[in-house]
Amino acid sequence: MDRKTLITVSILIILPIVSILYKLNVAELSLLPVEVDDTVNLQVVILPKENVAISEVTFPIPKQFIQSRVLKSNTKIEDLDFRLQKKQYGHLGIWEGEDWNSSIGYYAKIKILPYTHTQPEPEIITTPGKQNAKEPYYLSLKNFSPEEIRLAKKLFEQIHPYDKDNVASAKQIYYFISEEVLNTTKEITLSDTIRLNNGNAYTQSILFSLLCRMKGIQARTVAGFDLSKQNGKDNKTKLTFWNEIRIHGKWYFVSTYKNIFAGHVNGYLPLWKSVEERRSLGEDPATFRYTAYITKSNVNRYNFKEYSEEVASSNSFLRYYSLYSLPTPLQNLFRLVILIPIGALVLSVARNMIGIPTFGIFTPILLAMFFYETNLLFGICFFLLMIGLGFFERYALDKYYLLAVPRLSILLTITVITLILFSVLNEEISFFNQMSVTLFPIVITTIFVERFSIMIIEEGVLNTFVTLAGTLLIALISYMIFFFGSLQILFFTHPELLFIVIAIQILLGQYKGYRVSELFRFKEIFKS
Question: Mind telling me which residue stretches traverse the membrane in this protein (predicted)?
């Protein structure tokens, strides 16, 4: 490497490093936007118990709550009938049918949001005995048995939260249950929990709701999944229970089982927000068993809004020249475009050092963008189909001795017709999921098929298909790079890193050694 090249490459590498250090230390910006990791995949599988005949199964289905947003869902019903029972405090899925012997259930992709209400202000209300006939639903005691109410009144007198405001009373009840009632995972009744001071998450939460209602505090028991209780090996989890209390019109999270009172809590997925009886959820261990799997969804999402605000509030000139200052449509465009040089770098290595042949210089990169903008399966199928059609079209039109421009125009028309047929058929059978049609298929395939036809005539079928395989390989590698979210965000946040890409390209451009393919091609010569 000569001195001029060494100086140029050094400058191109040092500049981005200095720029990033300036952002971190002088402008006091974060290295990257904070990654959002709040989307989960929930899969519930329900199976019948052996030697148990049952014709109806009920289980809670995810519903849109403040703490959960259902992005996608579908239900597995096999030969059973399915109906959805919608209520304000939850949805129940009901499967009905005879001879049920296979697994049923559902899948959902859900965005989890935290409980944000914390530290409630004191609230004073009248005593429970003076409430009118139209008492709020979450103060009702009608679902509790006389025995449970009798035992709870004795416990209530023992706790003695009479002369306190509602928040202080709720805390006193919470502290008593979380400290005096021992946790257990065994099945136990509410009456036995009061007698023995021993309870699971369900009976503790039901007891908390009952005591709060006796004081005049609106409380409810919530059923759902605690993401922190997953089995680390297979991501299995079970339904758990917690409470919500209503103070000044806001619902606050409470869990005596996990020792949390009105805190900022994340990782809880509510399914049913008014559990008066556990059997109302349909969870019946005697007749069927269920398994719930929760995994983090494979999404690369970042909090761009927060980082944009961080850039805008900085005292640096970067607030005017950062890509985060552009309109959102332009930002979305540059997040893709900024990785094209990385694809070109892969292409340079593949051609100059490995020796993989391709059609043209940037055709694989354009193909990768075609796959990214439409759908990978659709892109490959459409691309291969057009190669086949173009191949036969070339030989058919050769009989007419057409000039190049009319021949390309005919090929362009065939491409448009084929794209229309693909789109119409996909609407009917939905073979290609999330397919979006852009101008890339029309432009790229028309030019590519013409080159393909000419190369077959000039260099033969074998060499042409080897070049086609190399082109598809580089296109697929570039396509995977486009989906590498962390790399995309790194270069979008620090576009000066593209200078390092230029430096690497300069080094590749001066490579004069053997390609890997040549080592195999001329191995006999090297041996001699």
Answer: 6-24, 333-350, 370-392, 404-425, 431-449, 461-483, 489-508
Residue 238 CB: number of other CB atoms within 10 A? 15
List strands edge to edge, sheet with 236-237.
Answer: 68-76, 104-112, 39-48, 288-296, 236-237
Confidence of residue 462 (pLDDT cuts 50, 70, 90): confident
Length of the chain: 528
Q: Give 185's pLDDT tier (boundaries 50, 70, 90).
A: confident
pLDDT of 129 strictly over 60: no
Beta-strand runs (E) in 208-317 = 219-226, 236-237, 240-247, 250-255, 260-261, 268-272, 288-296, 301-302
Query: What are the structural domains of the chain?
Result: 3-34+303-318 (no CATH), 39-112 (no CATH), 137-279 (3.10.620.30), 327-523 (no CATH)
268, two tokens? 């809880």
Q: Output the pLDDT for position 419.
A: 76
- pTM of the entire structure? 0.57
Q: pLDDT per residue over 302-342, tens digit each?
A: 767 777 877 888 877 777 788 888 887 888 888 888 988 99
The backbone torsions φ and ψ at residue 91, rounded to the nearest 5 degrees and listed phi first, read: -115, 140
Can you tell me whether residue 473 is helix, strand or coil? helix
The separation between the first and the last C-alpha atoms of the chain, rounded to the nearest angstrom, is 31
Q: What per-residue confidence (pLDDT) applies to 436?
A: 53
Q: What are phi and psi of 223, to 5 degrees?
A: -110, 140
With beta carbons less than 8 A apart as the criterion, state whether 31 and 302 touch.
no
Closest to 62 (Cα-Cα) out of 83, 42, 39: 42
Reference 264, options 138, 63, 167, 120; nearest CA is 120
Sign of CA dihedral 266, 272, 275, 280: negative
How would you classify the pairing of strands 219-226 and 268-272? antiparallel
Per the structure block, which two tokens stand in for 250? Answer: 């806001």
The rounded distance, in Å, linking the Cα atoms of 383 and 271 is: 45
Q: Which residues of 470-485 are buried (b: 16+ CB within 10 A; e: fewer)?
A: bbbebbbbbbebbeee
- DSSP-based three-state secondary structure for 509: helix
